[in-house]
Amino acid sequence: MPDELLERLRRFHDQTFPGAQAQFHALVEQGQHPGTLFIGCSDSRLVPYLLTGTGPGDLFMIRNVAAFVPPHDLSAGFHGTAAAIEYAVLQLQVQRIIVCGHSHCGGIRALYFGGPAGALNLARWLELGREAVLPVQPTPEALRRTEQRAVVLQLERLMGYPMVREAVDAGRLTLHGWHYVIEDGEVHVFDVRQGGFVPASRAEHAGTGPYAPFDPADGGTPLFNEIDAAYQGAC
Ligand SMILES: [Zn+2]
Questions:
Q1: CA-based torsion, 158, 164, 165, 168: positive or negative
Q2: Is residue 105 annotated as a catalytic residue, yes or no?
Q3: Strands, E, within the chain: which ranges?
Q4: pLDDT digits (tens, 9 = 90+) for 16-60
Q5: Which of 36, 52, 116, 230 could form a disulfide with 192 if both were Cys (CB 3.0 to 4.6 A apart)?
C-alpha cells in the first residue's frame, strides 16, 4: 500500500522546493521578519495563506480551537498561545495581529452543545469564549453572532498583554478582528466605527479602525470604551 504522505513529502522536495529555493535561502540567511501575527482557528477550511495572498516568511501563525487568546497570566501554567504572542510582539515586533474566526466553527458550536466526552483540556479551553455566548437558542444566526462576538472578546484579551497594549498605544501595532465566511469566500472585518463586522468588499480598512495611538491628553482609555460600544452594536 503506497504511503501517500511520504509521496507528498518527496513531491515537495523534488518538484515544489526548487522553485522556491532562493526565497527560503534568503529567509534563512536574513532570518524571518513577518509583519503579521495571525491567530486563527485550527479549522482545516481556514487557509490563511490563501485568504491573504501570502507565503513563506509573511505570517507568524498561531492556530488553536476557535482562535482564542488566553489571559496574560503565568499562573495558568504552560501556554503555547501566550508564549507565541509574547515572542511575536517582543522579538519579531510584528506590526499587525489578526484574530480570525470563521463560520460553522466547531469550537463555538461546542460552547452551546458541549464537546466530545473525555476532552477535558478542550472543555477548559472553551471557557475562553464563554462570555461571547448569547442567552438564546443556538440558531445558525446566533452561532454566527457568537463567532463574531468571540473574535472581539479575544481582541480585548489581547489588550491585557502588557507588551501588546504598550505597542498599540505607541502606534507600532494594530489589531484586526476577522470573521471568515467559508461558503462566501469573504472575510468580514471588525469595524468599530460601523459598530460591527463589515464584508471586506464594503470595508474601508482591514480592521485597524479603533486602534489609534493612545493619547494621554484624552484622559482615560477610550479604546476600551469604543470597543465595548461596538461590541454591543455588533450583537
Ligand atoms: Zn473554528
A1: negative
A2: yes
A3: 36-41, 59-64, 96-102, 174-181, 186-191, 196-199
A4: 999 999 999 999 999 999 999 999 999 999 999 999 999 999 999
A5: 230
